[in-house]
Structure formats: C-alpha cells, structure tokens
Design brief:
The protein is mainly α and 508 residues long. The chain contains ten helices and seven strands. It is rod-shaped, with a radius of gyration of 37 Å.
Amino acid sequence: MKLSQLFGLACLGLLVGMPALAQEQPAEQTCPHPKGWKPTNEELQRIVSDHSQWLEKWNPLGIAVARPESANLEKGKADGDWIAVAPPEGRANLCNANLRELELNKANLSWAKLNEANLVLAKLNQANLTHAELNKALLIAAELNEARLYGAEMNKADLSGAKLNGAILLFAKLNDATLMLAQLNEARLTWAELDEANLDRVEMKKADLLETNLNKANLSGAKLNEANLSGAKMNEANLSGADLNQANLSRAELKKANLRQASVAGAHLDSADLTAAFYAPNSPAPDAYVAQIKGLETVTFPDGEEVGLVQLRDLLQKAGHRDLERQATFAIESGRTNHSIARNNPGDIAEGVFRKVVFDLTTRYGLEPARALLSIAVVWALLIPVYSWPICRQRRQAKYASGIYRILPKDRIEMHDGKPSLDNPARVERLHARGLATLGWSAYFSLLSAFQIGFREFSVGTWLTRTQPRNFALEATGWVRTLSGLQSLLSVYLLAMWLLTYFGRPFQ
C-alpha cells in the first residue's frame, strides 16, 4: 500500500472517531439561572414537590442511603458503583438561587443542584441533602442540625458559623470549604473530604471523623474534644490551639502538622504518624497507650517548648517502648542543639556545636548506640595502612625514626630444647615485617591501641593480650605513639558512649 493511501485511511479514521470522542467528554454544565435569582414561594414549593415526585419515580434511596456490607471503603464504591451513579434528568435545580433565611426543615433535596446558592441563615434542620450539589454555596450561619449530607458536594462552600450538630456527612466533599466558627458537635464526617478546608475555631465535639481527609486544613482553635479522628489524614494541617482532649487520633496522619499550643490531654496517639510534625502542646499528657507512634525522631518544637515531647517520652518509658523513647529523646536533644546554634549568643553557638559533634555524631543522642562501635571500627580500619608504614620500613632507615617495638618481658616462659624456662632476660626488638604480615601486625597494633584504656577490670586490651601465643607487649615511639594515644582516647570515649546509651539514659 502506498504512503498516500495510508495517509488517507488515517484521516478517514479520525473523521469517523471524532464524534465518538466528542460524546465521551460531556460538555461543561452551566447554571441556567442568573446569579442571585429568587424563586417565589409558589415556585419553590412547586420545585420541591416536583423533586419529590422525581425521587419517587427514580427511587435512589436503596442506592444513595443504604450501604451494602460488601462496600469497598477504600475506593468509595459498592456493588453497582452506587456513588458513581448519574441521576436522570428532572431533579431540582436551584443553582445561583437566593434562599436566604428560608425554612426548609426536613425537606428532601437529595441529589438536588444548589451550586453557588445563597443559603445564609437558612434552616435545613433534619433535611435530606444526600448527594446534593452545594459547591461554592453560601451557608453562613445556616442551620443543618441532624441533616443528612451523604456524599454531598460542598467544595469551596462557605459554612462559617453554620450549625451542623448531629449532621451526617459520610463521604461528603468539603475541599477548600470554609467552616470557621461552625458547630459540628456529634456530627458524622466518616470518609469525608475536607482538604484545605478552613475550620478555624469550629466546634466538632464528639464528631465522627473516621478516615476523614483534612490535609492542609485550618483547624486553629477548633474544638475536637472526644472527636473520633481515627485514621484521619491531617497532613500539614494547622491544629494550633486546637482542643483535642480525649480525642481519638489512633492511626491518624499528622505529617508536618502544627500542634503548637494544642490541648491533647487524654488524647489517643497510638499508631499516629507524627513525621516532621510541629509538636508543642500546652496541656497535660495524652493517653498512656502510645504504642507504634511513627516519625518521633523527626518531630520539631519551638525554642523552650519541649514539654509536650518530654511528657510523651515519659509515657513511652513507663510503657517499655525503648526504641520510641530513644526517638523522642533524639527529637528533644537535637531540637535543643539546633535552637542553641540558631541563637546569636556565641556561648550558645559554641555549646550547640559541641553537643552536635560530641553527642549527635557519635550516637545521635542515644538513638543509634551502635554508631559509636561502628566509629571505633572505622578508625581502626583507617589507621591500619598508617601503622603499616613504620613496620614495613627497612631497619637501617628506621634506626632513629618513629616505630613500633615488641617488648619481651623478663621471666617470660620460653622453650629451650623442648623444655619451658622462666630464666629469660628482657628483650626489645623493632617490629619489622613484609607483605601480608605487615597488615596483620598493623591491624593488631591498631586494635590494641583502640582498647588500650579500660575501666578497672573492663579492659579489652588486656583481654586481647591473653590470646597471644607468646608473652610480649607492643609499644610505639615518636609520632606513632602520639597517634596511638589519640586513637586510644577517642576509642575509650566512643566505647563509654555506647555503654551509657545502650544500657542507660544519659540524656534524661
């Protein structure tokens, strides 16, 4: 087939397929009503009545309200994909409507369109707004107590000062909505979406927020006493000054969340993720069950406000969670060090740098005690080629130079003609070897230098000499002796840090 024919067929296929593609992408729906239009009472009653008849004909209650046990909660779907069901035409369309101060208590407006409607001071107590569309609607000071808002879309809606006490908002979408000073006491917001919502000083006492999305939400000063926030996603949320007393934060995600001046007395934090959270509550300690908290070592706090972390560490210590306790200690001490370095006072800066080098680099304030032993091993390995140099040098060249000597003490046991003898004079000989023997002697001398200093009976260097086939000691002169002494001092400090941090709590 020629190239021109292939090109023609391709064009024909595009012409045939374009209508189908256009049908797959629905046209953008626009509101047929002008902004702020106000229906008359008769017109509104007719719209609500027609909507009720439409609901009876379509009968979506079995789909929209009843949730089968086989529902897949992660995907938000059930058998038949009821959440994705598109209702037929004929539902009430009150978009852009001015319904200010209107009374619609117990009204059934499920699946109705109320996008950008003005419902300021409206009364919708016990109303059924299941899957209703309320995007960008004005619900300022509206009354929605015990209203049913299953799956309602309220993105960017303004609910400032609204009353939603006892309301049911399962699967509701409130992304970027404003709920400042709203009341949602005992409301059910299970699996709702409230990402970037403004919940400043909102009242949500005993509210059910199980698995709710509150990422980047503003919950400053919110009252969430005894609220169920189990599994809620509150990453980067602002919870400063929030009341979380007795709240259930089990499995909650609080990555980079701001908890400064929050009240967490009796709150459940088990399995919560506090990675990079700003944790500085101003209250009594949370609930004593604090198992499996994540990201504690990354928690930060303002200068001088580490009390909340100290409380948490005490709970972890009493519960026997040693690893989590170490993480909390690291967060506290590293935070203090960083704040000290950040100050303009030269003394504080010097202290911070000292703590950083001496405690952080060695064991990370007890978080990684094995790091001290690893440092000893690294220094030991790095000095092996250094000690090999004086050992492999020729005797004539090293006659008056720094070197390593083997000392054979007096009255040592020696074999003469197959018989042991103690009457042997002391002897000193320069240590000299070639090839692999050089590496062997230098590695052994580096090991002895590392553990030369001990603690009374605890002297690893003495124990190592007991393994030698002959009784001798290795001594150095010149720069080799100086380097060996520095290695001994560094190693004994690292060994002490390992012992103190592994078996004790030096930073508490």
